[in-house]
Structures are given as structure tokens and as C-alpha cells.
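Here is one chain, start to finish.
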Amino acid sequence: MALSEIDTVKKKIVKAFHKATATYRLLEDGDRILVGLSGGKDSLLLLELLARQARIHRPAFTVEAAHVRMQNVKYESDTSYLEQFASSMGVRLHVLTTSFDDTVPTKKPVCFLCSWYRRKALFNLAQQLHFNKIALGHHQDDIIHTTMMNLFFQGQFSTMPASLQMKKMPLTLIRPMCLVREQDVARYAALAGYVKQLKSCPYETVSHRHDIRLLFEQIERINPEARNSIWNALDSLGLLNQ
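Its structure:
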């Protein structure tokens, strides 16, 4: 019996997920994992994958999710949908609200401050509730794009690793979808009926990341193996597991 399109895409994603968690040793017995649930398709899929894996009990770990809202930046997801989605996966969802002082002059852009304070709230919750890992929904394209941005704009060959042990706190950041391609995430999200979140951030602009995405698409048309070449370079230098 032929697989349906959604089953075919899901099988491909799950295979990449299992390969990533095994290759980079992302899941271990006794782990308490907090998923950063932004409301986008990437984090929704990550929660689905981890919730599914947790029910298998090999390895034995627990998973919960957290959604962080920024009080002074009008950029929110549909919290009721996120609660319903997490509940359908048998996962507890924590909804947090944080803010930063936007009256103090700073050279840091609002996007940086918003991201930094959201991440800080996530880290604080993880430590308060004794999680040892935070899972983020970055896929392979995100990691490759970050590599290119760091090389072209920062002059360094670095990226977001699949696993990163934090130096100042007892937490490890993991990216279990690091081998999943963005096009597969988008296709599965559409077929599975994920509700697309409305984003109306007043500070949202076209960014360098958008330009890098277009550049990488051109590179892949020239050399379809470019993705593997970049990934192998990162892996050989130990930049994916720190």
C-alpha cells in the first residue's frame, strides 16, 4: 500500500530527527526537556516530534513547553491555539510574559533586546523547574544560514550547534531538527493543518537572513551538494556539538 503524501514527508522528517538525536546524543534517560514554543511551524513540529518520542520511553525523558510573550512589543501568537496544540500532544505549556526597559538609550536594536529577554525568561524558567535541557526548533537551513551570516558579516566560521552546554548555568541547548530541511517542515505543516500564526511586529523588516536565504538557494542550484559540503565542514571542525 502506497504511503500518503503526509506519511511520506513525516517518515522523512522522523528519520532525520532520529539520526540527529543519535549522532549528537541529544536525548538521554532522565532528561527534563523544555521546548521553546514560539508558535511557528518549526517549534510546533519540534514539540510534536519530542512528544511522540517521549511516549516510546526509549530513552525515558519528560517534555514540557514554554511560550514567552513580550509585554512592550506587540508581537504575539494565538495562545489559545498553542495551549490546545500542546494539550493534544499531552504536554504541559507554560505561558510567560516578560519585558525590557525601552526608555533607557541603548545601541542595541529592539529585535536584539526582545530576543535576548525572551531567551532569558526561558532560561530562568528552565532552572526554576529543574529542566536540564532546552530544545529549540532550528532546522538545518537555519543553521547553514547562520553559518553564512557569521562568515560574511562577522568574519568567523561558526554556527548554532546541535548541542551546546551552557557555561554559566546547568543547561544544555539542543536542536533535534538540525538535520531536517526547511522545505520538509513547511510541507508537513501545511499537510498537518498547523494554524499559521499572524505576525505583526512593528519592528519586523527585511533582514540579512532573508538575503542569505536567497543566496543559499542560488548556491544550491549551482551545486546541489553545497548543503552537505557546508554541513560536513561544520561537523569536521566540531562546531555542531559543543
